[in-house]
Amino acid sequence: MKKIIVAGIGPGSKEDVTPAVEQAVREADVVVGYKYYFQFVQPYLNEHCQCIDTGMKQERERAEQAFRLAEEGNTVVVISSGDAGIYGMAPLVYEMKRERASEVDIVILPGISAFQKAASLLGAPIGHDLCILSLSDLMTPWERIERRIRAAAIGDFVTAVYNPRSHERYWQLYRLQELFLQEGRSPGTPVGFVRQAGRPGQTVTLTTLAELNPEEVDMFTVVIIGNSQSYIDNARMITPRGYYREAAPADEKKGRLIMMESFRTIASELKRTDYPLGHLWALLHAIHTTADFDMESILHTDEQAVEHLYNKVKEGTLKTIITDVTMVTSGIRKGALQRLGIEAKCYLADPQVADMATALGITRTQAGIRLAVEKHPHALFAFGNAPTALMELCDLIRKGKAQPAGIIAAPVGFVHVKEAKHMVKPFRNIPKIIVEGRKGGSNLAATLCNAVLTFDDAKDLKPGRDL
Predict the structure, then answer these.
(1) 3-state class of 50 per DSSP?
(2) What is residue 10's DSSP assignment?
(3) Pairwise CA distance, residues 112 & 26, whole Å
(4) Which domain holds residue 127?
(5) CB neighbours of residue 379 within 10 Å
(6) From CA 343, how far away is CA 349, in angstroms rounded?
(7) Which are the catalytic amino acids?
């Protein structure tokens, strides 16, 4: 029977040769392959088997010999390291069959790929969507390879890298590292590389994207770059599939489950993954409310601001939130306020405010803040609408009449908005959350209040408890 069996012999250890491949080699009339790989199948060859080995870069010659021998009636096994279909001989054999219009039957026997073997030695780094790249530009233009690298980085794929470096090809891995960082992959992204996987001299190394040293890598190495969810634990690299993260009590409210999924989606699309937890929690709330990823550039939180404000709530020293307009008050979750014993107030509709504004020639929001400071000088003040109200608070702080527990500065508009936000920054002893520039709004101010009130849910990324 005219047959060519293209067999993936695995990465190199006898334990990784599949029974089907072992049986095919035992029954072969002829085995054709790169001479370096014959050592891995030598124990299985029968005494009558003809062995044809060739050097590197002679793939076409090996395939042509295989077809000639198969067309003479031999059962020919073409061996290929790893899996024959992954940078192996299988595609070439099929292309040559078409070119020759050959009647030889082709059978492909899969093998364990080098990236799979490397992954098993590193832990479980390929547990989610992944791609495989070769940095060899012998048959693929580098420009195309670079586009694929960028796509892998932008798509947040776990990425296995073949042919990462050789004597002549010394700079490509440096370039890949540079591109991944340019496209927003965190410097702390776990990276593992395995040299001679499954073979004598095997070495396993764990590092990060920023600390990866391409000089430690050669042609016998497979590099695996994690995605934004990958982590290192007990010297093992793990990319979670999401089973634990997605688990939820049977009575979990549907709205909260949707919000949790939204937060996970936002987190996966951020340019950075190494934000401090308090800032990240506020940022996720801001983007969730606005669907505006520009928040990643314009949301400012003082160091530990969210944590400090939450601790004041838990200690009972922060009991009141003052807002510039009623829409901010309305957006603060009533369940959270009740659970924590917090009162949210806006004095804009107080009868005294209109009289004060008229008498002093100031805006009603300014008057509202003056009245609020008289009653609650130590409150958390949240602004989502009126820059003049924020400016008024700054003036009262400078006069020693207000000592806020914190300030959320998110007024929106075109007049005095930027200036008002700049005015609040010099108060370095007051924890502040600021939406820089012209953007802001009542919804933003409210959601940032909610972020503070629910900070104890941040570590587990479980927003929406009080919906």
Answers:
(1) strand
(2) B
(3) 19
(4) 115-238
(5) 24
(6) 16
(7) 288
The per-residue pLDDT for range 4-38, each reduced to its tens digit, is 999 999 998 889 999 999 999 999 999 999 988 89
User: Do 165 and 95 belong together in one domain?
Assistant: no
Structure token pair of residue 210:
């920023």
Q: Which of 298, 279, 309, 125 is nearest to 205 (CA)?
A: 125
The amino acid sitting at 204 is V
pLDDT band at 48 (very low <50, low <70, confident <90, very high): very high
Give the C-alpha separation, 111 to 225, whole Å.
22
User: What is the pLDDT, as a whole number, of residue 184?
Assistant: 83
Beta-sheet strand order (sheet of 190-195): 130-134, 158-162, 221-225, 190-195, 203-208
Looking up residue 147, the CATH number of its domain turns out to be: 3.30.950.10
Among 73, 91, 112, the domain boundary falls at 112
* pLDDT (tens digit per residue) in 182-241: 988 888 899 999 999 999 999 999 999 999 999 999 999 999 999 988 999 999 999 998
* Pairwise CA distance, residues 430 & 426, whole Å: 9
Helices 305-315 and 277-290, packing angle to 10 deg: 100
Average pLDDT over residues 356-375: 95
Count the Cβ atoms, other than its own, within 10 Å of residue 243.
8
DSSP bridge pairs for 195: 203, 221
464 is a domain residue: no
CA distance to 47, 110, 194, 215, per residue, from 81 (Å): 23, 10, 16, 24
Tracing tokens 């073997």 back to the chain, one arrives at 117
What is the spatial distance between Cα 143 and Cα 121, in angstroms, rounded to a whole number? Answer: 32
Residue 99 amino acid letter: E
pLDDT greater than 80 at residue 253:
no
d(CA 358, CA 201): 85
